[in-house]
Design goal:
The protein is mostly helical. It has 2 domains: 64 residues, no CATH class; 65 residues, no CATH class. It is built from 9 helices and 2 strands. A two-stranded antiparallel sheet has the order 1-2.
């Protein structure tokens, strides 16, 4: 049955395919309409219609000719956004320059202290949960082992009686 629907659909002309699928889309949601008309997946129909020069318009819930042109309104909005950014470019660069040193961690010192070793670390659950949450939310680009190592190194530097040698 499904293969028969697909075969029938493929035998139609481009205009007939467009008419048949758009008529089904007027009364049914996309997935149901595609299955009813072609017996295939939405992805298959999208790729097939794109090869014929049509694209699905979500606002209209219809397949329309793909002219390859974005709406002029979107282009004007993007251009205005870029112009607004250019107007405050110097201020943004100054802010980034001020924040940059305090935002990142310099792990080069950390890596000079030897190989990574496995240690069992007992800590209070609430503290570890908070640490995990901060790491996941604010520093997902860093490994937790590096953040823990960095925190321990900072602690030793700040509170240790002897300074750590590099």
């Amino acid at each position: 049955m499904i293969k028969e629907l697909q075969r029938q659909f493929l035998s139609l002309t481009s205009a007939e395919k467009l008419e048949q699928i758009n008529n089904a889309l007027k009364v049914k949601p996309l997935k149901e309409a595609v299955l009813e008309v072609t017996g295939c997946s939405v992805t298959w129909l999208r790729e097939h219609m794109e090869s014929l020069g049509y694209r699905y318009n979500r606002q209209l819930s219809q397949y329309v000719p793909d002219d390859g042109v974005k709406s002029q309104k979107t282009d004007q909005e993007e251009l205005q956004g870029l112009l607004d950014l250019l107007a405050v470019k110097d201020q943004l660069l100054a802010m980034v320059g001020q924040l940059q040193p305090s935002m990142g961690f310099d792990f080069r010192d950390l890596y000079q202290h030897g190989a990574v070793v496995t240690r069992s670390l007992k800590t209070y659950s609430g503290i570890m949960e908070q640490f995990d949450a901060v790491c996941d939310r604010c520093y997902p680009q860093y490994r937790k082992q590096d953040l823990i190592g960095f925190a321990l190194l900072e602690f030793v530097r700040k509170y240790g009686k002897e300074s750590v040698t590099n």
